[in-house]
Write a structure and sequence with these properties.
756 residues, two-stranded antiparallel ribbon, 1% strand
Length: 756
Amino acid sequence: MASVHESLYFNPMLTNGVVHANVFGVRDWVTPHKMALLVLLSELGRAGPQLGLLERRRLNRLLLPLLQGPDMTLSRLRKAIEECCPQLAGSVHIRLKLMVEGELKDMEQFFDDLSDSFTGAEPEVHKTSVVGLFLRHMILAYNKLSFSQVYKLYTALQQYFQKDEKKDGADENDMELTNPEELDGRMEKEELDGPLREEEISCSGPLSQKQAEYFLSQQASLLKNDETKALTPASLQKELNNLLKFNPDIAEAHYLSYLNSLRVQDVFSSTHSLLHYFDRLILTGAESKSNGDEGYGRSLRYAALNLAALHCRFGHYQQAELALQEAIRIAQESNDHVCLQHCLSWLYILEQKIFDSCVLLEHSVNKSLHFGLPYLASLGIQSLVQQRAFAGKAANKLMDALKDSDLLHWKHSLSELIDISTAQKTAIWRLYGRSTMALQQAQTLLSMNSLEAVNVGVQQNNTESFAVVLCHLAELHAEQGYFAAASEILKHLKERFPPNSQHAQLWMLFDQKIQFERAMNDGRYHVADSLVAGITALNSIEGVYRKAIVLKAQNQMSEAHKLLQKLLIHCQKTKNTEMVIRVLLSIAELYWRSSCHTIALPVLLQAVALAREYSLQYLASETVLNLAFSQLILGIPEQALNILHMAIEPILAHGAILDKGCAMFLVAKCQVASAASYTPQKKIEALESAVLNLNEAKTYFAKVDCKEQLRDVLYFQARLFHTLGKTQERNKCAMLFRQLHQELPAHGVPLINSFK
């Protein structure tokens, strides 16, 4: 029995109002929608001299997507024409109505008249133009139809027109029954939904080859640059299934199905579609035509390479390694150096999961430059910079390396890699604790114009780099107490990257972290505890760390200590130095709260050594502040003040508002403790200076709504005002302290026994 594809190819038939006439190799079909486009072109030729320049310009811009895009309903077509030229839309409707209400010979005469467009000394349409080629294809396809097929086409045209008439009648009845406000709201919704209404985009029948190519290229471009404007995963898969039902040999449709499956993390469907893509390339001979005898082997080795990348993406490293070995073997047999360089890059990624080695990566960069592969070389440099940043290399050397890669980007106009490089710089400055520099790089990327041509309304910055930079920007604003601005940035991220998009996990994690910090600052530990599960689902290490912080705040010291010890061992194995330092600081705070101050000192010294070894300046400054607090508790406030003056500058320059407040509060504590040995006059000056520092700390804490720290500052200020004899100020601070103390739970430990 013949296959479905063969029956469609050798037996012309009518399906869903579409006449197939590809018996003689014609790649276009005559459909009612294309008949309406032919009427539009005919009327446009007649009304040419009468149309204004602006109307002609709008119509010319409209024609290309209409000729290349899938079929649409007549009402949709009329609406598009009316937006450009209402008079022409009326003429098209009247012409179609006369043809439908007339006889079959009217349609025959219409096609005969189309040929006249190419005649004369100055023809209306040039044969080689886009419109001319479309007209010639349609005339050729119509001439190949048998009489029965012509009749079926005419019947389909009548149904196409009558369906639009019925819809207009239903709309008029709805207008009579609907009040004006509801009608305006419905029209606004329809206009907003306009370009992406799935029932309008959905093709009821098979697409021609050009329509299929346009649809596939458009959706692939949207998936890469602006996923929000692409069809939803379910709708796109439905369209692809319909396309493959009539055109099973279109390999690109299988590849788009593979990309669509990656959006929803469907490993089975993505693997199935990827294998089908390369199978179709081999069966149709598409690769052999463009690459000679080498095409078959080229498909096999790149199929294995893509399969390795797919398994690596889903964390199947053993399967990825096997597929990569197969790709390397075939590439070596074929002496394909380009494929081997891609294999080398993926080999580094796989081995990075086991041990850190720069040898493969450096070799890959050198070879890529040798074979003229700037894109691959630049990606290698980016990976090398990232690895060396985690290894603690100096920031100036990393920025020099990124500058060299930027020269490659601008030389070869690699717009996507320019964005990646800028996002990488933002992340590196954040890692080193230079928030001002990170903010500058983030703003640079956001204000940068893309080098790529914008097509079909694509927002070129809707990429992973854009998402990363916006997430850092939201966190920076939240750290400075600008929570409203951070919420606006996150709202923008949610619009740009919906929850079902592939980069949505980035903003989800940052959103949860910002909410967690706000809840902890506000003393709402039960709310913070409820957010831990969401953070853990997105990042297990961050989730465990936040759980320990909540337990510590709830005075569950033994549980928090066990959790932090397990996390410390895991982070040391995975060489997550930044988290190791944060865990050590939390363990030191547990020792303070348990009055084990001497035990905390070795832990803090270990954290300082790590932070300085890996050039994490901000974490080093924060650790020194913790050391100063330990010295204060141990009774040497003068030494604490000395090291505070060395460490406080980076905190005030690049730190979060909460850290600035804690630093100023600590300075005030040290000043008060040191003043005990001063002369009376000098002691009063020291206490007044401490009051000023407390005022500054209070301003910082109020900005982030940190009520617990505010309560501690007010208590301390009240004691200082009492010592200075300022009764009115003391009573004011005491009243504010009482209000906060009644609102918040008691510490359970002395107020001075905590740094943050």
